[in-house]
Design a protein that fits this description.
The chain is an all-alpha fold. Helix content is about 75%, strand content about 0%.
């Protein structure tokens, strides 16, 4: 592993010779692999394109982010800018651990899954561009070794395979359960995962998963929300839903700022965010922003 690190430094420094000229380009692509971008994209798919695809995409992404956080903690490998003074850090990072690349992992899963579900040529082209430039941007910015990208690729494909093969089997199994057992599973599974590994990222992601999953169950039971094929209605829904999400996220952040223990109120905050996406916003859409002829793209 050390040999690989040493061998990778010349390639990284070669890429960085084009800095700062290419900084805006690679910063743009790396932001398209940020979790914040995907958390903007997921409601768009769920509320406006295809409810079922959006729900599966969100749940599997939350589990994928958790898997990446656990893997980083277990592997405990350095980032290039920490390993060598020759490498410049051109982007801030949340963690000093580099392997595997979360950006690569989530990009492989998200864009691969969307392309396979919607089967649009233009989407395959976008996915191809993302799969090349998002991982490459992480090397250029000095925050990942090439082997980190390989690790992210493998885990991303594993999550993608699970979403395509395992998730439908789990969904079929859950469809035969009553509402109470479903809710218990939706709450207890994220709680168990948080207990096993409870850093800030895992608490945030698992809390959101719990709120979203419970919201999904109640939404299917009481609302039966469907996507509209009217772009004006979808635009109104998305804007309204995102405004509500920001109000909940920011409002609870301000409200809970001085509350202790901070981890408990972080859990409450993100449960509410997830619940809004899965139930609150669809309830609002069903009551006040009606759809016309539900369809999926």
């Amino acid at each position: 592993m050390i040999t690989h690190f040493e061998q990778s430094i010349p390639f990284i420094t070669w890429l960085q010779q084009f800095s700062p000229t290419l900084d805006p380009v690679f910063l743009f692509f790396t932001r398209l692999g940020d979790e914040q971008f995907f958390l903007i994209l997921l409601p768009l798919v769920f509320w406006c394109l295809n409810r079922q695809t959006g729900a599966k995409l969100a749940i599997m992404l939350f589990l994928s982010v958790y898997l990446n956080a656990v893997s980083k903690n277990i592997m405990d490998q350095p980032r290039p800018f920490l390993y060598s003074d020759l490498v410049k850090q051109l982007r801030e990072v949340v963690s000093d651990r580099g392997f595997p690349s979360g950006h690569t992992q989530q990009t492989v899963f998200i864009w691969g899954y969307l392309s396979l579900q919607f089967k649009r040529t233009w989407l395959w082209i976008i996915s191809g561009v993302m799969l090349i430039f998002v991982p490459l941007s992480r090397v250029y910015l000095g925050v990942h070794f090439p082997i980190d990208l390989l690790g992210g690729l493998v885990l991303g494909l594993l999550v993608l395979f699970s979403a395509l093969w395992l998730a439908p089997k789990v969904e079929k199994w859950l469809s035969n359960k009553e509402i109470v057992p479903k809710i218990l599973i939706a709450v207890l599974l994220p709680c168990m995962l948080m207990l096993l590994f409870h850093d800030k990222t895992s608490i945030t992601i698992m809390s959101t998963l719990a709120g979203f999953s419970v919201g999904l169950i109640l939404e299917r039971q009481w609302i039966q929300f469907e996507v509209s094929n009217n772009w004006r209605i979808n635009t109104m829904r998305y804007i309204t839903g995102m405004i509500g999400l920001v109000i909940i996220w920011l409002g609870l952040r301000i409200t809970f700022e001085s509350f202790e223990p901070s981890w408990l109120f972080r859990i409450i905050r993100y449960i509410m965010c997830g619940f809004w996406v899965g139930y609150g916003a669809p309830w609002l859409f069903d009551r006040h922003i009606k759809h016309k002829n539900p369809s999926a793209i």
